[in-house]
Amino acid sequence: MLNVENLDVWFGHDPDRVAAVTSAAFSVAPGESFGLVGESGSGKSTILRAIAGLIDSWSGRIEVAGKPVAGSRRDRAFYKTVQMVFQDPYASLHPRHSVDAVLSETLRLQGMGDIDRRITRLLDDVGLGRGFRFRYPHQLSGGQRQRVAIARALAAEPRLLLLDEPTSALDVSVQAEILNLLADLRAEHGLTYVMVSHDLAVIGHMCERLAVMQQGRILEIMSADALRRGAGDDPYTRRLIAASAGYSRA
Amino acid sequence: MNQTLPQSRREWLLSDAPQTRRQARLGAIYQGWLTFRSNKLAMLGLIVLVLLIGMAILAPWLSPQSPFSQNLAGRLQPPSAAHWLGTDHLGRDILSRLIHGSRITLFIVGTVALIAPVIGLFIGTVAGFAGGWVDQVLMRITDIFLAFPKLILALAFVAALGPSIGNAVLALALTAWPPYARLARAETLTIRNADYIAAARLQGAGPMRLLIRHIWPLCISSLIVRVALDMAGIILSAAGLGFLGLGAQPPMPEWGAMISDGRTYILDFWWVAAMPGIAIFIVSMAFNLLGDGLRDVLDPKGGRQ
Amino acid sequence: MSPPLLSIRDLRVSFPTRQGIFEAVRGVSFDLGRERLGVVGESGSGKSMTGRAILGLVRPPGRVTAERMQLDGQSILNLPERRMRKIRGSRISMVMQDPKFSLNPVMTVGAQIIEAYRLHAGGAKAEARRKALEMLQAVQIRDPERVMGAYPHQVSGGMGQRIMIAMMLAPDPQILIADEPTSALDVSVRTEVLNIMDRLVRDRGMGLIFISHDLNLVAQFCDRVLIMYAGRIVETLPAQDLHRARHPYTQGLLNSLPRLDAPVARLPVLHRQDSWRDDLPEGL
Questions:
Q1: What value does the mean pLDDT take over residues C220-233?
Q2: What angle do CA C35, C39, C45 make, to 5 degrees?
Q3: In this model, does residue B26 exceed pLDDT 90?
Q4: Does the keyword Repeat apply (chain B) (predicted)?
Q5: b/e per residue, B197-217, with b = 16+ CB within 10 A?
Q6: Is C111 strand, coil or helix?
Q7: In terms of Cα–Cα distance, which of C245, C241, C248 is closest to C222?
Q8: What ipTM was estimated for this complex?
Q9: Distance CA A242, CA A230 (A)
């Protein structure tokens, strides 16, 4: 479904060029859920943005559903295959657009007909119900906003969802609801996920395989089972797992 | 539609769960109105401006005399029962001239307020959104306009185009847009990288759509506030052009030109210059108060409790 | 048992809104001794507002009322701003979530610590400087001389938070209120910052109020935990007994966390009940 080879991403121009990602490579099978973990600045979100076409300063090879992409240009078919959910639900909805406006614009852009019925279905799918259709973002809680963002991503009926820390701005009880929703949607629509998080437990819960990143490099790719056992090959991975298990008094 | 619901109209408007597009939109407007209404001074400004508009519409019926009829025998009369605000050097009733002049003032203000921010919005957002050389070129042009004092530039325009009220308005509009362009560009730069723009891009939205549907609505509110606050300056500039004889031509009762007429007599017959001066002051003040109130309502960063 | 450092009874914080009075904190009571007290809850539970109310940082039109709010037996409820400022910093300090917003970007780190110290302790500049260096060493900054001359944007997040702690502890306060001090930090840095805070608080016999949304972290770090919901304390527990919590809200919060050591197919979801808003907490 997704194949990334030898990916370099950088920001700025020589001589101030900063490498954000260095020779990253991984592939994700259809229907799989793949995690990218690492601390801030490790380049995990940058990879997602490069795939989505939101960054054009990259080199290497990115293949989505067997088709290579280039730069930041993407065609219509790409947006029907790949969609993204962003980290901060307070920043990912236009403050002046109601839920209805967001979803109907999205559906129209994707060339869908029968917009009324589809909006109702999307809202039902993400567990909001039609009562939310005409609300503005400031009338929604963080969890409800994230549900709208997920509905927007689903509107195009994509096969690959890029999830950029979708729950890190939410309370734990709301996080549980959103993670359950994402798991249900994946089962229902046969979606493939690439999920970025700094929270190992969330990745362990959601993904089958994951890549551990540090300073722009993928240190290792491991299974969620190995993560649970705390069995990383790299000392950094083991440190990260130990640290995220919680605080133990020195 | 609201009658069918077992709730008051106020509750219907303030509902957190609107049922229709119309209810949502009206509710948002009503919320804004409530915020605005809680600002007493802004309400005062609004009332003054509503009165001004009413005065302009009803000018022929409101004014006690014709603004043009001269009476050289009764020139420079102080305020009295016959002439509430006195008469000018040609014996014309100042009150009637002020009332008719409100039309000219509104025409100037309205036209400038329509043209300048639109030019500014367009240039600023395109520059901010496109970036690169487009940004460079547009912003350098803006800088050139900003490098001249506004009134001097307007004077140059009017001098070239010929003195008339239409040309004065055009000159004012052409010199007033650069600050709006700057403002719109600054806003665009912060909005451009927002996640909701990225999300719209991922739906396949093109640059035109992003600009018009996503960026403009967020820039417009701060521009409206800025325009309302600038209005006083525009009225004063228009009056300044009138005062210098480059705006409205006699015998049009333009307020600035009226001050200019009264200038010669200011020491002995103060009311001739003072009355239009007070009118300009009141209207400018009203716009400023209105602008402050609008800022509370429209500022997207202000958030609402 | 020695008298508590801080004693609070029936603390209420309210804000007028268009829909009427909104009570962010609704009758919170607790005593703080020389201990690490965790305050846990979700966003909107009133946990941060409680901390702000203690420091007198609730801005009008917010209103703070309490039957009792005493620091060392002396009332600090609604003191005039000038007297509150003396207490803030010298007797109660606060560490905020993000050091980026709490440090002055145009002053060097050293100048800020020195200023903070002299504001409360007075004394000569050289003395304050020596103390600042000492504080930076205490928060395990390896090269304190260099960091003193650095500007806040030149230091990392973890370093910034340690500097904040150094600054807050310089005047030897009796109580430290830490509002989500580690949630902007990476896990590897988090442990370090917590260790430093732990050691300092213990060595100086301070009282610590640790406000956080992270139940497990609080349970591991603190001695005692208050769980807040909708502006009230629903449960008070010794930290080691957290996993034996009885209130369904506490249990729900604990269960809704995904865990590496106990994988589940579906996460249990918290079903909020209206009765949690108003039932009296057990054991009070």
A1: 90
A2: 165
A3: no
A4: no
A5: bbbbbbbbbeeebbbebbbbe
A6: helix
A7: C241
A8: 0.88
A9: 8
